[in-house]
Amino acid sequence: MSARTRSLTHTHPTEVSLQDALDAVGDPVRRAILRELAGSADWTRACGTFDLPVTKATRSHHFAVLRSTGLIEQRDEGSRRLNRLRRPEFDRRFPGLLDLVLAEPATDLCLGDPTP
Amino acid sequence: MSARTRSLTHTHPTEVSLQDALDAVGDPVRRAILRELAGSADWTRACGTFDLPVTKATRSHHFAVLRSTGLIEQRDEGSRRLNRLRRPEFDRRFPGLLDLVLAEPATDLCLGDPTP
DNA sequence: TACAGTGTTCGATGAGCATCGACCATAGCA
DNA sequence: TGCTATGGTCGATGCTCATCGAACACTGTA
């Protein structure tokens, strides 16, 4: 049975440790996903519509981490997988953390270390 | 010249990126230091007085990270190095982040993965 | 049925970092 | 002048995780 036929495994933020939350939010690619998701309405963005400098394998990995940490919710719609930011739930569990992430200016993920 | 004779290099929280802040706070040993420090008055705790399951080399490394991230301030007093949590400064730069760390229940750092 | 689009899974790889032991430097005291 | 306590530095090591290509699964459509 594939992940598409069975219902997706979600984790509620209340079950998430601070360690896992910080790990999830500690990756710049995942923060970019969260910011882009916060700028769109719920269930309007599929995984492939995000502007990320990684392959789809890595992308899929990051979305799985965000889901297992209670940061996003996912739902299948045809061949696409739509996303929603679980902002109120996560805010209740970790007040202020998501605000810091969303307030961060969009960094250019391609330029790792601009040493000339 | 040793680090004890010259004045210590400090970083103000305003110069710290969110990435560096999350990295600093992402380590459980460093969070334990921050919690223990928050429970003591300023300039009353030397580096060696913390209950940590690591050698002094690792300990020294963690304190250096906390100092370079603007989370603590250090001052030499005789042969000991006293510490102070830069709570108001850090709170202004990253509101809520330190609160989450200090609210975290003290975890047993020795038991990494209690799989029997 | 064949094909294109979307997303997952698997195994391998590489980089970063926490950790350690050994050694060195300084301060304070007998 | 030794001796001890505190703490930093250095090089090596090991583990975790982000990343990738390749293969696979499902959906929708021609």
UniProtKB/TrEMBL annotation, chains A, B:
Stretch forming the signal peptide: none
Domain HTH arsR-type: 20-99
Classification via Gene3D superfamilies: Winged helix-like DNA-binding domain superfamily/Winged helix DNA-binding domain
SMART domains: HTH_ARSR (SM00418)
Protein's recorded name: ArsR family transcriptional regulator
